[in-house]
Amino acid sequence: MTEFDVVVVGAGPAGSAAALEVARAGLSVALVERGPFPGAKNVFGGVVYGRVLDELIPRWWERMPVQRWVTRRSTMVLTPTQALTVDLRAQDWGQAPYNGATAHRSELDSWLAEQAVAAGATLITSTVVTGRSATGVRTDRPDGDIAAKVVIACDGVNSFLAKEAGLFKAREHNTLGVKETLALPRAVIDERFGLTGDEGADFEIIGCTGDIPGGGFLYTNKESVGIGVVLELDGLTAAKVRPEELIAELKAHPAIAPLVRGGELVEYSAHLIPEGGYRTMPELVTDGMLIAGDAAAMCLAAGIWLEGVNFALGAGMYAGRAAAAAIAKGDTSKAGLAAYRTMLENSFVLGDHRRLRDMPGLVLSERVQRRYPGLVCDLAQGMFEVDNAQPKPGLRKLLREARRTHGVRVRDLLRDGITAMRSLS
Amino acid sequence: MLVIAALRWVDPRPGVDPLTGAVHTDPKASGPSAADECALAHALRIAGPGRCVAVTAGPPAAEGLLRDALAAGATDALRIDDAGANTAVALTAGIRTLGPPDVIVCGDHSLDHGTGATPALLAHAFGAAQALGLVELSMDGELTGLRRLDGGRRERLAIPLPAVCSVEPTGLRPPRASLPAVLAAQAAAIPVVTVDSGPSMVQAGEQKPYRPRPTHLGAPAGDAHHRVLALTGALTERTPPRVVRPASAAEAADELLDFLRKHGFLEP
């Protein structure tokens, strides 16, 4: 039987960060990936926030494969005929140590795995871990059992290992992300989005998914844009609409169409997203096993924050450290690995998720999805509409009319506002 | 017996610049074609306990293909680092370093616009028999192959040694490698032979977009109204269209011939 100190299942950001930390601790580690190379099958919206890499890879920004550095961050609220955009441009984000970047997962994940391999990890590709064994994990290869003192499960949103261990909760707010990558000349992207050099834009959109709870996004790469929607599964099933129809509607919206016109479809991809947040996380530690990344629902979908890769990197890093420390102490039981949970709670990984635990429910609620976009757009339109036969209406009157039009009660508005303020404060 | 699996490392979906025609390949997406995987499987099977060497010409990234072959059961691997553009010449030089081969198995043609000439050139270089278009290959005392013919027919061939066999992509694939074999293959050193096969024997002329020479057309005379009429051809005398409905193909042919004679395209 093949033996390692630690086996990491899944060579995504969480898995590679975990393998990197274990290898740096001088232990043997196998990084098992089912795709032909890391990132071969992975999908994400398109933005990675890399500051967590400060702890892992010094001056990471000089080597990480990046498409563009995000210097323009826009939050759009859409109705079929209206668009209200809060547009932030921060030139500081276009220089080291940067803030967020658009990237292709096939390049990003391969690069992260290369760092782990360079540190001494053994990457095993095209190999599926089929479950746990008494001493480690089983794989789909002949003689494929791997013995390990600790298993770190980074096997994604449908983690078979977490399910097999009975740690997987029935997840609320699992969503389906679908994305089209549209090729456009670099000069056209720069002109349409007001960018120069390596600057990039990140548009987060709400109100573009009809009756289905969810949202949309639009990101710029070097010579392509990624546009897509994120859809709550139950809502998608009930609506009997195909996701690509919703992307087509989004691309045809008057506020979006000029940005993506003429783009040639070069890729269509889809992936489940564990958007439930803190309340849907499984137990993170069990005897001989840690869970990190999407497998542990470490994806933050909290309105203005949409993050995942940074949480995966952080969780993987702490999982690697906890596993190495437990092996050094000779105790890989649940108690011996409990430091993992403590590390996560003392860091942004669980700190942010715990603080924003009510946000996923609020963001995907019926009011935020179907009533508030129309309300705020009507309110803004009323404020800027000039009807000189009449004096300008007051904000209170506009708000009252918008509330009536969209069926929003004052107490619901206050309740949602308090929930949001509590989470954000 | 020395069996060579000559494998082509290729990107199955290369990007082609529509303006310049330049081809961009992605090393991550590159690998063997289905026919090459089939060739490796045949080579492993007919080599049996004998020596089976996986050979490819390509950059260091192509070593992944060779490690996969080692994990699947090849006894050795060889990468040929070719500075030139003649695959068959490079393969010949590399294979000669291994000794005289008994059988060389290739895919029938590579996916990157391959012409299928490499097996023939290898057979010529080694003075070997060539069997192409094979769907089966077996070694039972003698080397035999099954060749696909048109119309669903098959032709069974007794192939003398040495031989170069090119196989079509069928359902045959190399065996799933065991985990210990995968790990051993990862750690194996891949020998590299550096050759320069020279510039491509096929020289294509410089490709340029079609640019017809400009032709000067004089502006029509007259006032604006007449110039527009002249430019649009509204006043030009023309033969009105004539609808014919010949009763048979022979009458239709006669009609066409008459038309061509009338307009001077055929002798009266």
TrEMBL record, chain A:
<dbReference type="InterPro" id="IPR036188">
    <property type="entry name" value="FAD/NAD-bd_sf"/>
</dbReference>
<dbReference type="InterPro" id="IPR039651">
    <property type="entry name" value="FixC-like"/>
</dbReference>
<dbReference type="GO" id="GO:0016491">
    <property type="term" value="F:oxidoreductase activity"/>
</dbReference>
<dbReference type="InterPro" id="IPR059103">
    <property type="entry name" value="FixC-like_C"/>
</dbReference>
<protein>
    <submittedName>
        <fullName>Electron transfer flavoprotein-quinone oxidoreductase</fullName>
    </submittedName>
</protein>
<keyword id="KW-0274">FAD</keyword>
<comment type="similarity">
    <text>Belongs to the ETF-QO/FixC family.</text>
</comment>
<keyword id="KW-0285">Flavoprotein</keyword>
<feature type="domain" description="FixC-like C-terminal">
    <location>
        <begin position="366"/>
        <end position="423"/>
    </location>
</feature>
<keyword id="KW-0560">Oxidoreductase</keyword>
<dbReference type="Pfam" id="PF26311">
    <property type="entry name" value="ETF-QO_FixC_C"/>
</dbReference>
<dbReference type="Pfam" id="PF12831">
    <property type="entry name" value="FAD_oxidored"/>
</dbReference>
TrEMBL record, chain B:
<protein>
    <recommendedName>
        <fullName>Electron transfer flavoprotein small subunit</fullName>
    </recommendedName>
</protein>
<dbReference type="InterPro" id="IPR012255">
    <property type="entry name" value="ETF_b"/>
</dbReference>
<comment type="subunit">
    <text>Heterodimer of an alpha and a beta subunit.</text>
</comment>
<dbReference type="InterPro" id="IPR014729">
    <property type="entry name" value="Rossmann-like_a/b/a_fold"/>
</dbReference>
<comment type="function">
    <text>The electron transfer flavoprotein serves as a specific electron acceptor for other dehydrogenases. It transfers the electrons to the main respiratory chain via ETF-ubiquinone oxidoreductase (ETF dehydrogenase).</text>
</comment>
<feature type="domain" description="Electron transfer flavoprotein alpha/beta-subunit N-terminal">
    <location>
        <begin position="20"/>
        <end position="202"/>
    </location>
</feature>
<dbReference type="Pfam" id="PF01012">
    <property type="entry name" value="ETF"/>
</dbReference>
<dbReference type="InterPro" id="IPR014730">
    <property type="entry name" value="ETF_a/b_N"/>
</dbReference>
<dbReference type="InterPro" id="IPR030982">
    <property type="entry name" value="Mft_EtfB"/>
</dbReference>
<dbReference type="GO" id="GO:0009055">
    <property type="term" value="F:electron transfer activity"/>
</dbReference>
